[in-house]
Structures are given as C-alpha cells and as structure tokens.
Amino acid sequence: MRRTLVAVMAMAVITPVALAACGKDDQKATAWVGTSTAPTASASADGEPVTESATVPVSLTITPAAGKTGVPVSAEIGVKVAGGKVTDVTLKDAKGTPVSGKLRDDGTSWIPAKSLSPNQKYAATVVATADNGQTTTQTTSFTTMGKPGKKTGTGLYLFDDRTYGVAMPVVVEFSPGIKKADRAAVQRRLFVSTSPAQPGVWSWTSSGTQAYYRGPEFWKPGTTIAVRVAVGGLPTGGGRYGDRDRSATAKIGRSFEMKVDNASKKMTVVQDGKTVKTMPVSLGKKGTPSSSGVMVVMEKKEATVFDTTDTDGDDGYVTDIEFAQRLTWSGQYIHSAPWSVGDQGRRNVSHGCVNVSPSNARWLFDRTLIGDPVTVKGTGDKLSYGNGWTPWDLSWSEYIKGSALPVPASLK
C-alpha cells in the first residue's frame, strides 16, 4: 500500500560551522621557524670540491590574522609551514580556558572539537619544528562574530548507541538545500571514521537537501561508525550559517538482506550470507507499481494508520496497518496485509507496498534493523534517487560523481 501520510521520524537537528576567516597577506602572522641545511659544492685552494652547508629558511604562517574580528564560530586555525611541521596548537578563550581540537589529516588546519562561542576573543599559539630540530612559536588572536540572523537547519539520521543494518548510510539533511557552489566548503566539515577502517565518500542529491556517506560495499558487521557534522556557524551560502554541531557514534549489526523478485512474487531473506527464509509477496498493481531499486529500512512501526484521503480524495483510504517498515518517503512499505494473503505469491494487488502475511510480517519485524537493505526488482517503476535513503541504488562510479570534493584515485 502507498500512503501519503509521512510518519514522523526522529531526527537530530544540527548545523554547519563557518570556515576560518583569513586576512590579507600582509596581516597574516608569519615567522621564521629556523633553518635546515642543504649541502652545496665549493672549491678548495687546490681545486678539490668541498661540501659546505647552506641555510634554507623555514617559515610558518597562521590564520585568522591577528586582530581579525567577525570570524565565524566555525573558525579553524590555518597553518602553512615550509621546511618543517606543526607539532603543537593551543587555542584558549578570553578566560584562558583551553579549547580541544586536532589537526586535519593533511595538516592544513587545526579544527576545534566544537563550535566556538559568539562574540568571544580567542588566542591561538602554534609551535612548528623545523627539519633540523629547531622550533618556533607563533601566536594570533581574533574575535568571533555574533549570532547570525539566518540559519541553515540540518538533521543527522544516526544516533548514539544504536545498532543499524549493514546498508545504513550516514544521512545529513539540510534545510534549505545547499547550492553547488557552497557544497565543497560544507563537505569539508563532515567527518566520518569507521572501526575497522573502511573507505567511504560523501555524495549529494541534486537538490542539495541531503548528503550521503557510504563505501563501495556494505559495512562490515560489527563496524563502529563515528560521525561529526561540524557545521555549527559555518557559512552555507546566501548569508546563512549552520545552526549547530552534532555528532553520533553507532554500531553496525549482523548482515540481513531482503531480496524481492516480482517475477516469482517472493522475498528471499539472507542473513550472514545464508538464505534463512523465503515468503510470498504481493507488490503494487499496474496502476500503482512498486519501485524497483536498492532501498533500506528507514522506520519501523508496530502499528500505524495509512490515510490517503488528503491526496487521493474519494479514491483514498484509511487503514490500520501492523508491522510496517518504511522504504521510501513517498510511502512504500513492507507490512502485514491479511486481506491479500490469497494473492501473495500469485498476483500484485497493493498500492505500491510489499504485502506479506501477518505471520511473515511479524517474523521480519522482529529481526530487522533500521538500515537493513531491501532490493526490489522486476517491477514497472524505477526508484527515484532521493526518495528514501537511496545511495545504494547507484553504482559506485555513478555515486561518487555526487561528491563536491575530489575523490581519491584509490576510490575511483
């Protein structure tokens, strides 16, 4: 059955953070870090070559520029060092309280662990060590901007201490959507780590209202996923700023896949690589076909009501439904359908949902997790990208085209 009534889904509201503002070149804090030596050839009195040491300057530049005001609260401490590396960064507020954070993997900046406070003065100290062991310390201070008037709201569909299916994508939602020109800056503030380590890429829907994160394959069972959407105070375009930071750490459970074939009118359930159950189904009839594609369980309701009278008028219906599992935003579900048991395995009579018997519906409901994959094939309708959590419905080569940042060659 299809219904247009969208069930309420819990969503963590978050926001993007602003990038560190930089001053003009002549305002940047620059210091010689020390010197490194490189051999250079010269000649002795008898004409024999002699190796001497030539000094090579090592420089450090940091941002925001000293005295900078109106800095977004998403500010990063930018670092540029030649001939050495940054070995320590300290950031303190006006009271001298340290702010925790860490360097980016590429070493280009230091990111506070949370958004800074508005209308506050901060002081940063950066220590760099030259290749020859010499060190230098450089400081800067800046003042953050006040609270912005316009914000971009965001939602993270991942929650602490929850267990999800192997196809659970990291889903971040933006309202209003992020325009193409602003997506790269936002994407740089979306962080995911997995244990055990697995590769992944962010990809945007065409509207910019959602960004997904997934790997080339489903997550390994037992994986821990840690996510930080560090967009609080981040400029998101159109004079808007992210509303707040949000993060979550969750687990991936066992592998549990549901595969629905219109030709056979059956669902095959595969757990940890082994077929554990098959069951007859009835899919959408000709006028309301089910969508074919790779979907995931987005929501589970043991009991709910489908009400389509607002959109379908006299053709609408109000029906009590048990063991409903949402697959799309438009209203495609797996659910108990006692009225179609005689048709299940034989013909399609639903309004687009996957009908199963009450006993099979309960069996599935008791075993599934949010994020379990559901593949439907052979129907007369193609799943629309973005109609649900749909990143797995694209091939990897197509999926990564949605990234706003260059994709590493190793992942292409």
UniProtKB/TrEMBL annotation:
<feature type="domain" description="L,D-TPase catalytic">
    <location>
        <begin position="256"/>
        <end position="377"/>
    </location>
</feature>
<keyword id="KW-0012">Acyltransferase</keyword>
<keyword id="KW-0133">Cell shape</keyword>
<feature type="active site" description="Proton donor/acceptor">
    <location>
        <position position="335"/>
    </location>
</feature>
<feature type="active site" description="Nucleophile">
    <location>
        <position position="353"/>
    </location>
</feature>
<protein>
    <submittedName>
        <fullName>L,D-transpeptidase family protein</fullName>
    </submittedName>
</protein>
<dbReference type="InterPro" id="IPR041280">
    <property type="entry name" value="Big_10"/>
</dbReference>
<dbReference type="Pfam" id="PF17964">
    <property type="entry name" value="Big_10"/>
</dbReference>
<keyword id="KW-0573">Peptidoglycan synthesis</keyword>
<comment type="pathway">
    <text>Cell wall biogenesis; peptidoglycan biosynthesis.</text>
</comment>
<feature type="signal peptide">
    <location>
        <begin position="1"/>
        <end position="20"/>
    </location>
</feature>
<dbReference type="InterPro" id="IPR050979">
    <property type="entry name" value="LD-transpeptidase"/>
</dbReference>
<keyword id="KW-0732">Signal</keyword>
<dbReference type="Pfam" id="PF03734">
    <property type="entry name" value="YkuD"/>
</dbReference>
<keyword id="KW-0961">Cell wall biogenesis/degradation</keyword>
<keyword id="KW-0808">Transferase</keyword>
<dbReference type="InterPro" id="IPR038063">
    <property type="entry name" value="Transpep_catalytic_dom"/>
</dbReference>
<dbReference type="InterPro" id="IPR005490">
    <property type="entry name" value="LD_TPept_cat_dom"/>
</dbReference>
